[in-house]
Design goal:
Blueprint lengths: L1 E7 L9 E12 L2 E14 L4 H23 L5 H19 L9 E2 L1 E7 L2 E7 L3 E5 L4 E3 L6 H7 L5 H4 L21 E6 L5 E5 L1 H4 L4 H10 L3 H14 L6 E7 L6 H21 L1
Antiparallel strand pairs: 1-11, 2-3, 3-4, 3-5, 5-6, 6-9, 7-8, 7-10, 10-11
Length: 275
């Protein structure tokens, strides 16, 4: 799989409190050895350098917990592994936040686990995961934020949310409470799909259509990350900007999958008629 990533301070902040981490590995499954990867974006918050500490601690702990479980708990579902890793990571960030100089720190965390043509996502906060292809752009995650609650209630539109004065207020994060649970998602990947993870320094500045256009129109995942970062800075760069783009390989086409399922259904139906 092709992987690109970048993290930038932006133009209005003096410190980059975002963290990204990408891990590529092969995983032994009942179907044989498959290509896999774990990708995480975290947007830290807190006084002084506490946000940077929170996001870095979160992504490192989360990856270690996930990989350990994936290699030892072979019968556990990937979503359960992601959930357990988030809960453990929250406990460590929460306990560390009690230390002098780190009180009040927290972080978002949005993670994508790719195993073959399966995408598993764990999410807390307002960083995002998208699936982008030539036909559509799917926002996999939903923000845990004040403005998202206003959008859900029909009080403001999604476009108004990008400029709302409370757009940076999140309702769920790692490290703020002793216990928290992530949103979990499982989707199938098909040929042409690009996975994009980002902090709100990108998706809170650039419209979704512009992000998708750049991902699809730029040769190379690494260059697309650089181009998106540059565009966010041209738009003012009000926050730290982090982005990961993953292009999995050897994915089935959705047309082939539909055709295979239709054929199987037809054979099943034929057998019933012949009885």
């Amino acid at each position: 799989m092709e992987i690109g990533y970048w993290s930038d301070t932006g133009l209005m902040r003096s410190l980059n409190e975002d963290s990204v981490l990408c891990t590529r590995f092969d995983l032994k499954t009942h179907l044989g050895v498959v290509s896999a990867g774990l990708f995480t974006v975290a947007d830290g918050m807190g006084g002084h350098n506490a946000g940077e500490v929170a996001s870095d601690l979160a992504v490192r702990t989360f990856h270690a917990e996930c990989l350990s479980r994936l290699l030892t708990q072979t019968t556990t579902s990937p979503l359960s592994i992601l959930e357990a890793a988030v809960i453990r990571t929250n406990a460590i960030v929460f306990n560390t936040a009690a230390e002098e100089g780190l009180r009040g720190m927290g972080t978002t965390l949005t993670a994508a686990l790719v195993i073959g043509n399966n995408l598993y996502v764990a999410h807390i906060g307002d960083s995002r995961c998208y699936i982008i292809n030539a036909q559509e752009t799917i926002q996999v995650t939903k923000d845990h934020s004040v403005v998202q609650q206003l959008v859900d209630a029909g009080i403001i539109t999604a476009e108004e949310a990008m400029h709302h004065p409370n757009r940076n207020e999140i309702t769920r994060a790692l490290g703020y409470f002793r216990e928290t649970t992530p949103d979990l998602y499982h989707l199938k990947l098909y040929a042409g799909d690009h996975i994009l993870l980002c902090s709100d320094g990108l998706c809170g500045v650039l419209p979704q259509e512009k992000i998708a256009q750049t991902v699809l129109g730029t040769p190379g995942a690494s260059q697309a990350c650089l181009d998106l970062t540059a565009q966010a800075n041209l738009a003012g760069g009000p926050d730290n900007i982090s982005v990961i783009i993953v292009k999995p390989e050897n994915l089935p086409s959705w047309q082939a999958v539909v055709s295979a399922e239709t054929t199987l259904a037809g054979k099943s139906g034929g057998s019933d008629v012949g009885l």
